[in-house]
Specification:
This protein folds into three domains: 7-53, Uridine Diphospho-n-acetylenolpyruvylglucosamine Reductase, domain 2 (2-Layer Sandwich); 61-173, Uridine Diphospho-n-acetylenolpyruvylglucosamine Reductase, domain 3 (2-Layer Sandwich), CATH 3.30.465; 182-296, CO dehydrogenase flavoprotein, C-terminal domain (Enolase-like, domain 1, 2-Layer Sandwich), CATH 3.30.390. 37% of the residues lie in helices and 25% in strands. The chain has helices at residues 14-24, 37-42, 78-82, 85-90, 92-97, 104-109, 112-118, 124-131, 149-152, 231-237, 244-258, 269-296; strands at 7-9, 28-31, 50-53, 63-66, 69-73, 135-140, 143-148, 153-155, 158-159, 166-173, 181-189, 199-207, 213-221, 228-229. The chain is globular, with a radius of gyration of 19 Å.
């Protein structure tokens, strides 16, 4: 199929892009990498009347560490994030997750901001941002505001973005080289590498010098209408040292209390719930181990 007719604009600057989005309101859709939007338009699952192509807006693509925060411009390509030494050092969880996103050809064109704004519940990046407690800077002609990842994803392909707003920057807190010990881990299960995951988990665990967990964040994807923060599972970890019993209890709480997956042609609800528990146990165990190894190194 072919997309429905639409008006096309290709601005050169951020103010031009924001002005076009404001002018056309809900009829307009930003075009970043286009790896999700264009197929959806071809199938007429999305029928925007206006496309605002951001690929000439050069100041939306960058990566830098500034005042303890890793800042990534929304138009930064997945492939650049995947290869960045700054990302590897400042946000190892994001670095670990990048190769799981689709295939190399798609990562070459796809953008980090486009993926987050698309808010696919089976996508990796939204859950990673939840686990990292990231913040998104969004802009419009009316000004800028910042939205925490915990407040950004509102439902199936739904976000807190208002008409005329554009994600311009992703802000990820950097773990200091000294101080509390932090370990992160990521995994997913899919039928084939590059497919959307049937379930996936991202975790971040911080421990004190005795190995006791002082804070934990667990996020899941592919098991709900949005990335899911596993509050019940994370609460069980805090104040505890790692053990097989603790890992089992955390996995059980996550699978029973934090998610309510639906079934489809690829996996039943029961299977997704079981898979989420198994993956949670593996990922949390790895995060604890990495917190110890990182500190010792």
């Amino acid at each position: 199929m072919k997309p429905a007719a639409f008006e096309y604009h290709r601005p050169d600057t951020r103010p031009e892009a924001l002005a076009l989005l404001e002018q056309h309101g809900g009829d307009a859709k930003p075009l970043a990498g286009g790896q999700s939007l264009i197929p959806a338009m071809n199938f007429r699952l999305a029928t925007p009347a206006v496309l605002v192509d951001l690929n000439r807006v050069g100041d939306l693509a960058y990566m830098r560490v500034d005042s303890g925060v890793l800042r990534i411009g929304a138009m930064t390509r997945h492939r650049d994030v995947e290869r960045s030494e700054d990302v590897r050092r400042a946000a190892p969880l994001l670095f670990e997750a990048m190769p799981f996103i689709a295939h190399a050809a798609i990562r070459t064109r796809g953008t980090i901001g486009g993926s987050l704004a698309h808010a696919d519940p089976a996508a990796e990046l939204p859950a990673v941002m939840l686990a990292l407690d990231a913040t998104f800077r969004v802009e419009s002609v009316r000004g800028a505001r910042e939205i925490r990842a915990t407040d950004f994803f509102t439902g199936l392909f739904g976000t807190a973005l208002e008409p005329g707003e554009l994600v311009t920057e992703i802000q990820i807190p950097v773990t200091p080289a000294t101080g509390p010990r932090t370990g992160t881990a990521f995994t997913e299960f899919s039928r084939r590498h590059g497919d959307f995951a049937l379930a996936g988990v991202a975790a971040r665990v911080t421990t004190d010098e005795r190995g006791t967990c002082v804070s934990a964040r667990i996020a899941l994807f592919g098991v709900g209408d949005r990335p899911m923060a596993a509050a019940a599972g994370a609460r069980l970890l805090e104040g505890q040292t790692v053990s097989d019993d603790l890992l089992r209890a955390t996995a059980d709480a996550t699978a029973r209390e934090d998610i309510d997956p639906t079934g489809d042609i690829h996996a039943s609800s029961r299977y997704r719930r079981h898979l989420a528990g198994v993956l949670t146990r593996r990922v949390v165990a790895r995060a604890f181990e990495r917190s110890r190894v990182t500190h010792e190194e």
